[in-house]
Write a structure and sequence with these properties.
Blueprint: H1 7-10, H2 63-88, E1 104-108, H3 116-123, E2 129-136, E3 143-151, H4 154-163, E4 168-169, E5 172-173, E6 175-178, H5 219-303, H6 310-315, H7 336-350, H8 354-386, H9 400-410, E7 414-416, E8 423-425
Antiparallel strand pairs: 1-3, 1-6, 2-3, 4-5, 7-8
Helix pairs in contact: 5-7
Biased composition (Gly residues): 192-201
Domain RRM: 103-181
Pfam families: RRM_1, U1snRNP70_N
Length: 429
Amino acid sequence: MTQFLPPNLLALFAPRDPIPYLPPLEKLPHEKHHNQPYCGIAPYIREFEDPRDAPPPTRAETREERMERKRREKIERRQQEVETELKMWDPHNDPNAQGDAFKTLFVARVNYDTTESKLRREFEVYGPIKRIHMVYSKRSGKPRGYAFIEYEHERDMHSAYKHADGKKIDGRRVLVDVERGRTVKGWRPRRLGGGLGGTRRGGADVNIRHSGRDDTSRYDERDRDRDRERERRERSRERDKERERRRSRSRDRRRRSRSRDKEERRRSRERSKDKDRERKRRSSRSRERARRERERKEELRGGGGGGDMAEPSEAGDAPPDDGPPGELGPDGPDGPEEKGRDRDRERRRSHRSERERRRDRDRDRDREHKRGERGGERGRDEARVGGGGGQDNGLEGLGNESRDMYMESEGGDGYLAPENGYLMEAAPE
């Protein structure tokens, strides 16, 4: 297909000229011939240097050794400077140390932004101040963080020394001490190896956070006292928490006990109410049964052919339920008072459920039927025994118990009620 291309395009696909051959400039390594063969180092040992004439080996200094060397050199230079300054230091001839040394107060760790007027306001509460001297750097002119306050009275200085230590001024707690340069023999400032620098021991866990006025030998004892005080406070807090937990539990118990007592009282009131209702229901039922029994006996007496002998039986019925035993109304047993009681009983009875009325009605009907049959048989037996011509005393229709009770009550002054067995007075004729 390429043969149909024009010459200029065919020239692009034409192969290049072959690379011309050039002979090498020197022989290849494997074609070279070595004139001297390989040998050992024995012939050259005589050329080495004698070890006795060689210099001793030099040892290089490590990084740790260099840092330790510089630290020792710095300490030595500082000791020399301190010794030189101690020879020149004389606080009694210092031109800046003016005023009475026993009335002067030393205040350190002062905020760099605190002014002299601020210090005067804070320390003037302890007494009148005569002079305040704040120390500044000679090179930069900035405050160095400490000052001297001279009071007019020595008692005011002692009061400030006692109460102002640890006072917070502009966010920093200051260290308050007396001036010791002119009052304590052999005392040296901090820049000369003395002062109050013993309060800084290392990290935050070992630093001593009090003023540092006392001797450094008592720091360990103060640490122990501080630890004991901290443990005592922790134990006190634990006791308070435990006491609060016990109080809360006792309050809960009292609250639950009060709720249980209230519930028990409510239940007892409900039980007493239920008992009262049940007692009233039983008493109403017993009165109703007694009334029905009286009516039934009156019917039996009336059906048995009553006569003159039945009158005492009518008068011998049970007294009304609402009146005391042995008393009758003014109009007799069938007076208005008795009729009112009957109406009340009928009204209470009408309130009962239909099922109870039906059950009581069926029970009463069965009982009346049985008693009627039993009374008829006994009447016939007595008629056969007595010849059938005895005197009608109105007891033929009564049962054995009612007749015996009536017969027993004839000989006495009163009669015995068939319902409750009370001895009642006879009805007036």
